Amino acid sequence: MKLALLFLGLAAAYLLIGWLVSFPIRFRSYTLSSPKIKAPVRLAVVSDLHSTVYGPDQKRLLDKLRQSRCDLILMPGDIIDDIKPLQGAEMFLDQVSAIAPCYYCTGNHENIETLITLPEVKARVRQAGITVLDKTRETITIRGTKLTLCGVDDPRKYAYIDRDQQEEVQLMNELGSMQDCPEYTILLAHRPERSPIYAQFGFDLIVSGHAHGGQVRIPGLINGLFAPRQGWFPKRAGGLYREQNSDLVVSRGLCQRWYLPRIYNPVEIPVIEITPILK
């Protein structure tokens, strides 16, 4: 009996510590290289905020982003939530473009349309000075390096019935192949489980969210317990992966919900440094 109580006490303490360490926003750093890059480029990823508030006027989140010294901020969806009040997302959106140029694609919760319709979401994001990538591409230059940024809307309207995924393939066909693109190409797409489709189109980097880090982790043993549309022990819960010839970075996101505690799964801002390949 004493051993059982001791075991339960230790398990409870382990879970409590795991819950507490998941609150502070952390940077997660990745370094990639490419012959298409002439000078280092730094990207910060803000995903799955779900209108979570980080201090008065989103100060903690915005201060953390400033510390990243990023050249661009990429937002692969679910900045706005379908249940939480919009104010948390709006406080963030209205200030973030002052830090660095921002690029955004929609997530599944921004397609649910309970508090705000999808066209209203896009209009609100654009009003804040953020570029919405919805089956579009944009080429920019940073310190002599050209980047082509692309994005697609989240396919929520058919994601639960489209077994062969042909509609999403059609979306990607409309965006166009990047196989022969001379610039470094980046795709913003919310769902990492769809990355095998995206990688067929030749992107150098794919940036996603959605998985929330698998919600519960056991460091060194389980990278994620459960993720939407991936199920138990998801393959792409959070981190850097190689998908065919593309790099895939999956953000663990910034969502905090009391009824879905994160365990050993800190909220995060991935920071991706892309460097030249020296000859």
UniProtKB/TrEMBL annotation:
Keywords: Hydrolase, Metal-binding. Residues 42-213 form the Calcineurin-like phosphoesterase domain. It comes from Holdemania filiformis. GO terms for cellular component: membrane. Pfam families: Metallophos. One of its GO terms (biological process) is lipid A biosynthetic process. GO terms for molecular function: metal ion binding; UDP-2,3-diacylglucosamine hydrolase activity. SUPFAM superfamilies: Metallo-dependent phosphatases. This is Metallophosphoesterase. The keyword Membrane does not apply.
